[in-house]
Automatic annotation (TrEMBL):
Pfam families referenced in this protein's UniProt entry, alphabetically: Multi_Drug_Res
Record keywords, A-Z: Cell membrane, Membrane, Transmembrane, Transmembrane helix, Transport
Biological source species: Limosilactobacillus secaliphilus
UniProt topology in membrane: Multi-pass membrane protein
Family statement: Belongs to the drug/metabolite transporter (DMT) superfamily. Small multidrug resistance (SMR) (TC 2.A.7.1) family.
Annotated localization: Cell membrane
Transmembrane spans: 24-42, 54-73, 79-98
UniProt GO molecular function: transmembrane transporter activity
Descriptive protein name: Uncharacterized protein
UniProt KW Electron transport keyword: no
Record-level GO cellular component terms: plasma membrane
InterPro entries named among the record's database cross-references: EmrE-like, Small_drug/metabolite_transptr, Small_multidrug_res
Length: 100
């Protein structure tokens, strides 16, 4: 699940770098990242309920994308936005910890 979530961040990052799919190199990497991310979600959903797998997958991707935006693209986020990103992390951990 973690690897699938990381690939969610990877493909989103490459999609930005593809400049609207005009850069073929990053466009191909975007598609490869998508396939890897979906493959990871498919694998995880064999052992986890969809109600757990999908939110954790998207949450990891969302938080990862926020971090990539901040550290690699130097995007400035308000304290309020960072607070809500922290709530995402708390939610992901909470969902995972309460799963049987």
């Amino acid at each position: 699940m973690i690897v699938a979530g990381i690939f969610e961040t990877v493909w989103a990052t490459f999609m930005k770098l593809s400049n609207g799919f005009t850069n073929i190199f990053y466009s191909v990497l975007t598609i490869v990242g998508m396939l890897a991310s979906f493959a990871g979600l498919i694998t995880a959903s064999k052992n986890l309920p969809l109600s757990i797998a999908y939110p954790v997958w998207t949450g990891i991707g969302a938080v990862g994308s926020i971090l990539v935006g901040m550290f690699f693209f130097h995007e400035h986020l308000s304290l309020t936005t960072l607070f809500f990103a922290c709530l995402l992390v708390v939610g992901i951990v909470g969902i995972k910890l309460t799963t049987h």
